[in-house]
Amino acid sequence: MDDELDASGWRCALPGAAPRTVQMGHGSGGRMMSELISTLFQRHFSNPFLDALDDGATLPAPAGRLVYSTDSYVVDPLFFPGGNIGDLAVNGTINDLCMCGATPLYLSAGFIIEEGFPLDELEQIVHSMAEAARGANTLIVSGDTKVVDKGKADRLFINTSGIGVLSIQHAMGSHHLRRGDAILLSGPIGDHGMAVLSQRQDLGFSSTLRSDTAALHEMSAALLRACGEAVHALRDPTRGGLAAVLNEFARASHVAIELQEAAIPVRPQVAAACDVLGLDPLYIANEGKMVVVVAAERAQAALDVLRGDPLGAAAERIGEVCAGNPGQVSMHTPLGGWRIIDQPYSDPLPRIC
Amino acid sequence: MDDELDASGWRCALPGAAPRTVQMGHGSGGRMMSELISTLFQRHFSNPFLDALDDGATLPAPAGRLVYSTDSYVVDPLFFPGGNIGDLAVNGTINDLCMCGATPLYLSAGFIIEEGFPLDELEQIVHSMAEAARGANTLIVSGDTKVVDKGKADRLFINTSGIGVLSIQHAMGSHHLRRGDAILLSGPIGDHGMAVLSQRQDLGFSSTLRSDTAALHEMSAALLRACGEAVHALRDPTRGGLAAVLNEFARASHVAIELQEAAIPVRPQVAAACDVLGLDPLYIANEGKMVVVVAAERAQAALDVLRGDPLGAAAERIGEVCAGNPGQVSMHTPLGGWRIIDQPYSDPLPRIC
């Protein structure tokens, strides 16, 4: 019955009509789903592991320890300046793997789609995912599509999970901060959160805000090659922003962290938007930035590596791990003040990723 | 501020009140989310890989090739006779790995929760997931929680992905059927779909219908140990049912498949419910059954292995791969008739998993 397909390969559910939207049957396990897979997902994501179309992807044995991570994305709206839910979902999971010291290899993608979602928007999103995966030398090898009735989901949610192979020998992470370590930040904070917020209904402040969504695999790999064991922790400050990451680090390692506010890069338009809305950039989500905790004697070398990458051109040394109340993050202000940076309790901006 | 926690460890968002539901802040990346993770997810799923609470889980190098799979679950309702969305999500991904000839090792779990979802129901579901994972000797090593505003999701969606290590040397799957192979089925079909359907609004036929949700890891491993390369394909007939699996097999391997209707086990209550609703059990989802394609000379040995497992006690040889139109699945009826079993186009029962 392949002659029922229209020119683009999408099946017409009603003769004479072309409902270019996702239908319940696209999540059914039947022929409609097979067609969606072959005409959309497989066309964009194609690789031998995915194309086998078995229940799971059979992959080569990786040469080393694995790193494994998952994230669901419910960002609202789906499209925003600088990206969309698709590249956000791919970059986000790639970054989670990189922050553990891994080289990302394989990704999975699970779609939950609201009935009636436009197929051309889905294709744009899938295209962005394919580009993002390719850009980071990763393959999307396993996928799943579910469709829920109209009104039962907010357009589209995507889950990505990822597998990487560990590229470091030393232990690294939130528990490994030491007194004297330097805190580096790869660039200005708050771009993603404020760019998404700028697109929301009733918050139409127009500006040049753009999400920083990007894959950090090259920068993190270069840093670990150059500084090795001197790197004590890496983290991308997403939900909860820089404040959440540093509070988690300080608590996990039982150390104090002191920041210099003047050193923390914030774009003027982000600072202005935060000011208007009563938000603090320290708590706003980023999707292409990296916090680096590094032994002081390698801090300058690490900063040079970050600045040598286009994504880290504006990197700064923003603070240090020091004696003081274990678990406390504080900040020196430019005018000589000092304040505690609390762990956020909730989030000023829900559904930011 | 830990004294703000109530006795059970759940934070009271309003002094004096105990809103035992999921709030937007539980998905925020802040303290509310940390508390949800430690008091619920970590408490039930605890293992050293998850407990590190880094962006990804760092795992030992597996001894062999990997199998990797993902699935999202949007089943409606969340609780049904025989299980809930939690064990369904864990068993489903475990089964996907097993059907590729893998031993499941690690799972991820991503939750998308509607604001206002009762925490006690979430705990029941998480508890079921933990039990199911333990039962199959797997660890949930990575997780993620997102909360969306009320009305923007239908209560709860769960994505699971899983990693297994390949336990076979030979190629197996939908492309590997050969003429003469026997088709085995591990037990009666339609239980899951009809059990879920029985719980839906306006379809309150009460009965003894129960979902068959179960992990097939022991049965598939025993089968592969006993019959090795004689096993040409394994598949769990979920969405689209037995008909979808066999049509996919017949097309991928360019062979015909002939079934004997009298040999296909269907419980009387499932047959009766299907009859009333005009449904065909061949197209109804299962969540604890296995289709086995095996070389004819090992068919009896394979059947014996299936029947030796409690989940396969009612296993039957239901048909064979034969000459005939490539891609065609047909069935001989008990009265001497013969009919084509088409690939389902859509699905009579959406949101069944």
Question: Summary?
Answer:
The structure is a homodimer of 353-residue chains. With 353 residues, chain A is an alpha+beta fold.
Which two chains form the greatest contact, residue counts included? A-B, 86 and 86 residues
Order of helices and strands of chain A: HHEEEEHEHEEEHHEHEHEHEEE
In the CATH scheme, what's the topology name of the largest domain in chain A? 60s Ribosomal Protein L30, Chain: A
Main pleated sheet of chain A: 7 strands, mixed
Tell me the number of helical segments of chain A per DSSP (H or I, 4 or more residues long).
Answer: 9
CATH homologous superfamily grouping of the largest domain in chain A: PurM-like, N-terminal domain
Beta strands of chain A, count = 14
What fraction strand of chain A?
15-25%
Helix content of chain A: 25-40%
Any idea what the CATH architecture of the largest domain in chain A is?
A: 2-Layer Sandwich
What's the end-to-end separation of chain A, in Å?
41 Å
Counting structural domains of chain A, the number is 2
Shape of chain A: globular
Spatially, the strands of the biggest sheet of chain A line up as 9-11-8-12-10-13-14
**Secondary-structure content class of chain A:** alpha+beta
